[in-house]
Amino acid sequence: MKKIYRTIISLACLALTFSSCQDWLDLYPSDEIKEEYLFSSGDGFRTALNGIYRKLSTFDLYGSNLTWGIVDAWGQVYDKNRAPTSGSGQAMSKICNFNYKHSELTPTTDAMWNAAWNIIANCNNLIQQAEVADPALFYDHDTERRMILGEAIGVRAYMHFDLLRMYAPAPAANPNTRTFIPYVDKYPSYVNDKQTVSYCLEHAIADLKESQRILFDIDTESTNFNPDRRFVQKVAGEGAFAALRGYRLNYYAVTAILARVYLYAGMNDEAYAEAKKLIDEEEKTKYFAADESYYASDNFKNGNMKMYDNIIFALYSPTELVDWDSEINHLTDGKSESDQNYLSWSSKMLDAVYGIEKENDFRFKYQLELKYYGYNYRTLKYYKQVESTEYGKANNQIIPMIRMSEVYYIAAEAIYTEGDLLKIAEAKSYLEKVKKGRGIKTVDYSSVSSKNDFVNMIVNDARREFFGEGQTLYMFKRLNKVLTCDSGEIPMTEEYVVLPLPDSESNIK
């Protein structure tokens, strides 16, 4: 970790001239720029923040590893028998068999670890600089300064939380006073002690609440949150930096992530309260609509494969997603069906998860492709979409990070109280909101006689929703629930769901 904290904004050293809102997203690292120069202008601060977002979207982090890549392979999302075993598939094939120290996996997990701490280091530096910066440096003065500060604090919390979910047991497993990873909020910081799960969660929650406080008036007073304005709208000049808020850790995203963290921490009342803020906002504005009309077949045919209308926060990847999909899913397309490899669901697991809802569910009808003589279904979420439509362009670039559907799941699980008919009805209404938005008009509760039964219904739906988005393993881990997959049943014990620290970090106390 020492070498990471010696890095001074190297990932944010980027070109400083822009002509449109796309330019603010299409940023790539160049040579290192001295820190005092970088933070001498508003452009420098924008460059630093955009560099952080671009690093988040790379293969090492959410462009692959922490979404559809090794985290979903680890979560047994894919059928091992059809999964690729060459190139990037090597690491995925090792982690799905829990071979954490295999030489084909450790370069990937080491790169992931290093990239994550580099993000945190650069967030800490940016936070410290933004806290004391002169508002006159910025195009939108103190509003822009606070926007940058609030987002950087939120990203710091987000990254720590995902490191915790990978490298420590969940609270439900009673980790008690054992320590696992540091929580670092200073720059530079060369020596950092490992902390308990509860310590890390408390600090992530505190950071998210501070981020939420800073961003509240910036985003709630804006009208920039319908889907087109979140992900598509073109804005020229310096004002472009404040556009396309769906690609940034906006107030609504921070609120959704805070609900996610609270639920993971077992703080159901707090999780519900945060989720309810977004549900109430959705009722008024329809910013993140899950309504069925948004996902008619024409929209899928026009390229809306990721249903981006429902995404609260995404990362931007201008070309890499399509390249990585080609590498992992389409390298063997020319071979006979029996020799093709790709990320897919087996028909056995698909039937178990979808059940009788399969034929009506848009996620089955439009997001999956029947392969291998009817035995497998390849995911189309990351398949290159037509570039001639705005839907297609947006879907090719979007890395989903959190959706409104997850907010409904959180509220449903958190509010369900056995014996309280009103709360049970409310919980069901939230699950139905997601299901009906995915084409399932009637929801069958005949198998539900307890909260555990209801949570199983949420889990079943979420496995469809989270496919290729890196959340499935964490859901089972949080619930301490046995994961049923093609290989059998995987218990949520540490040998299966806690990554060992890289060998280079063995000196962390």
UniProtKB/TrEMBL annotation:
<feature type="signal peptide">
    <location>
        <begin position="1"/>
        <end position="22"/>
    </location>
</feature>
<dbReference type="InterPro" id="IPR012944">
    <property type="entry name" value="SusD_RagB_dom"/>
</dbReference>
<dbReference type="Pfam" id="PF14322">
    <property type="entry name" value="SusD-like_3"/>
</dbReference>
<keyword id="KW-0998">Cell outer membrane</keyword>
<keyword id="KW-0732">Signal</keyword>
<protein>
    <submittedName>
        <fullName>SusD family protein</fullName>
    </submittedName>
</protein>
<dbReference type="Pfam" id="PF07980">
    <property type="entry name" value="SusD_RagB"/>
</dbReference>
<dbReference type="InterPro" id="IPR011990">
    <property type="entry name" value="TPR-like_helical_dom_sf"/>
</dbReference>
<dbReference type="InterPro" id="IPR033985">
    <property type="entry name" value="SusD-like_N"/>
</dbReference>
<feature type="domain" description="RagB/SusD">
    <location>
        <begin position="322"/>
        <end position="474"/>
    </location>
</feature>
<comment type="similarity">
    <text>Belongs to the SusD family.</text>
</comment>
<feature type="domain" description="SusD-like N-terminal">
    <location>
        <begin position="107"/>
        <end position="222"/>
    </location>
</feature>
<dbReference type="GO" id="GO:0009279">
    <property type="term" value="C:cell outer membrane"/>
</dbReference>
<keyword id="KW-0472">Membrane</keyword>
